[in-house]
Amino acid sequence: MTRAAKRIIVVARRNDPETSHQAAFAFSKDQKKASRSVTTAVAILEAHGPLSDFQIRALWPNFWEGPFSDSLPCKARHWAREQGLVKHIGYADHHGRTVRTWGIGREPNLDAETEIRPWKGTDFEKEYLRLQDEIESLRTRLTQKGEP
Questions:
Q1: Which fold has domain 18-106?
Q2: Which end of the chain has a smaller Cβ tally under 10 Å, C or N?
Q3: Which helix (H) or strand (E) is 123 found in, with range?
Q4: Backbone φ, ψ for residue 88 (5° rounding)
């Protein structure tokens, strides 16, 4: 059974410049590009085996046509994990720093909400979900007004 891909929503940080907010909004609207980024992250891991985010980023230009932000490869890998396509498989060293490595597959017994959000069931989660709803509501209103 094929899982339906989740809608990918990109949000710029509050203090980011306006251009970052515009780019995040445009990327969220272009679900084909968002989906292509997930496919690219998976293709890199299929071709090269387990990799860290730094290694995925280094290989990204070989698989992606056109410009991309430094954060896109890591975000795409994250979205692929949320969709159960990529799993955490171990650790590696990157310039003296321990980093996670990623491979193809779904993590066993992965409740994505628990693994990705260990604060599940806490007041923090309630506030996080409230803010996500508020962001989506604002996006809807801006879209209706025709603003980016």
A1: Arc Repressor Mutant, subunit A (1.10.10)
A2: N
A3: helix 123-145
A4: -75, 125
Cα 66 from Cα 133, distance rounded (Å): 32
Residue scoring higher pLDDT (108 or 95): 95
Q: Per-domain residue ranges for the chain?
A: 18-106, 117-148
d(CA 142, CA 148): 7
From residue 116, how far is each of 82, 89, 141, 146 by CA, in Å? Answer: 8, 15, 29, 33
Instruction: Give yes or no for residue 30 having a pLDDT over 90.
Output: no
* Pairwise CA distance, residues 147 & 35, whole Å: 23
Contact 16, 62 (CB under 8 A): no
User: Which has more pLDDT, 50 or 127?
Assistant: 50
Q: Which tokens in the block code for residue 18?
A: 């306006």
* Per-residue pLDDT reduced to its tens digit, 97-108: 899 999 998 876
Residue 8 per-residue DSSP state: P
CA distances from 100 to 74, 90, 92, 103 (A): 12, 6, 6, 10
Beta strand residue intervals within the chain, DSSP E:
86-94, 97-104
